Amino acid sequence: MPIRARIITMTMVVAGVAGSAGPLCAADAPRAEPVLAARADVAAKLAALEPGHGVILGNAAVVGEFNDTATRFELDKTGPRARDFTLKMCWAADRGRALYCGANHQVPHRINDVWEFDLPALTWVMLYAPDLPRGYGDLGRDTSDVLFSDGLLYTKRGGPAVIAHTWWGLTYDPTRHALQFMNTWVTKRKEAVEALGGDPGELYEGPPLWSFDPWSRTWQAHKTDAPRPRPIFGGMLEYIPDLKGTIWHANNWQMRATWLYDPAGNTWKNLDANGPGNDGAKAFESNAPEPEQIGYYDPARHLVVVQRHYATNHYDVKTNKWTKVLNADQSDEATPYGHDAHAVFYHDPNSGHGLLVQFDTNTLWSYDPDAMMWTRLDIAGDPMPTGGKRLAYVDPKANVVVVIDRTTVWAYRYKAE
């Protein structure tokens, strides 16, 4: 067997292409993961943290099997840091950690690494060291690690050779134990395939849904047949346990629809949210959020709650309808600005509210979906860090909002349990 063919075969086994065989990472129970030692000083600070207060927990350690690409960009010292339109972190309850991946515009890099953050241990863990860095619209200066097979561009280690911003197109499927990523980007794929000696006519044109299994630390592409949604920019990907799948949503000229991905069948279905036909389309357009939104799923209320600029939208899973419940004016200063490059918005299961971190204004907000009301939160104790490369997530095990500035970690407790 020629060397190139042998490498491709090995890549397919490691990475997999979810098609007729279905996802490789799905059905098996997760393997045991090495436990990081919890820090006593962090535990003490969290135990003493009162509602309405923030505290600096300390500086996070950064661990992992760092390769040349990782050390070139000093990821072994800084951790991932925030990356332009890539701010979302996904809580993985089965791991008790928050996962993160996605690309910068290009500065200082565009890489396909994957990380998770462990709060008790105050540690960033690199789960997947990056392949070679890519360019903004091409595969970068060095394409020696890239393969073209079955219509897709892979790296020899099985990762995506095209790597995108996440916008809000990142979610965690707890039944499949995998991070899901709608990996849509502007890479000139036809030119890239030609340069690799492949046939551009064989390119897969469907939605570039990828998953990452943090247990096996492998990437996987999920090719699907029609019907399927468009691979648009700035959409929202959110796992919905009620639907046993993940929705992919957008509402602009690129696509006006909410689609459901069924991982068991590896198929897509247009949910016809707000009803089929012209009346449904008009209701959808006027009520559903536009791209670059931020939001979360509330399992108790069966609602997807979204903030896009100063508008707040609900999607009721039971009625299959989007409703614009608030359309505030910027001047009222009673509503936060929601945008996937400027803020993050997560569900807080301990209170039942949404918690939004607005990085531009260094503010925290809570949203009550029953009262349909926003509240700007006062912060006593240590103030929120103000660096320009911050990430944030809600840690339900610790009952805190966590903000990470490079390796400085800050926590805020909204309400007592």
Topology summary:
Elements: H1 3-15, E1 17-18, H2 40-48, E2 53-59, E3 61-64, H3 68-72, H4 75-78, E4 90-92, E5 97-101, E6 114-118, E7 123-128, E8 146-149, E9 152-155, E10 170-173, E11 178-182, H5 189-195, E12 209-213, E13 218-222, E14 236-240, E15 245-252, E16 255-262, E17 267-270, H6 277-287, E18 294-298, E19 303-308, E20 311-316, E21 321-327, E22 343-348, E23 353-358, E24 363-368, E25 373-376, E26 380-381, E27 390-395, E28 400-405, E29 408-413
Number of domains: 1
CATH topology: Neuraminidase
Overall outline: globular
Uncertain spans: 1-32
Q: Oligomeric state of the chains? A: single chain
Q: What gyration radius follows from the Cα positions, in whole Å? A: 21 Å
Helix content: 10-25%
Strand-residue fraction? Answer: 35-45%
Annotation, overall tally of beta strands? 29
End-to-end Cα distance = 61 Å
Widest beta sheet: strand line-up:
1-13-12-11-10
CATH class category label: Mainly Beta
The SS-based structural class is: mainly beta
Mean pLDDT: 92
Number of helical regions: 6
What does this structure look like?
- The structure is a single chain.
- By secondary structure, the protein is mainly β.
- The chain has a single domain (3-20, 34-413), classed as Kelch-type beta propeller (Neuraminidase, 6 Propeller), CATH 2.120.10.
- The protein is built from six helices and 29 strands.
- The protein has helices spanning 3-15, 40-48, 68-72, 75-78, 189-195, 277-287, and strands spanning 17-18, 53-59, 61-64, 90-92, 97-101, 114-118, 123-128, 146-149, 152-155, 170-173, 178-182, 209-213, 218-222, 236-240, 245-252, 255-262, 267-270, 294-298, 303-308, 311-316, 321-327, 343-348, 353-358, 363-368, 373-376, 380-381, 390-395, 400-405, 408-413.
- The termini are far apart.
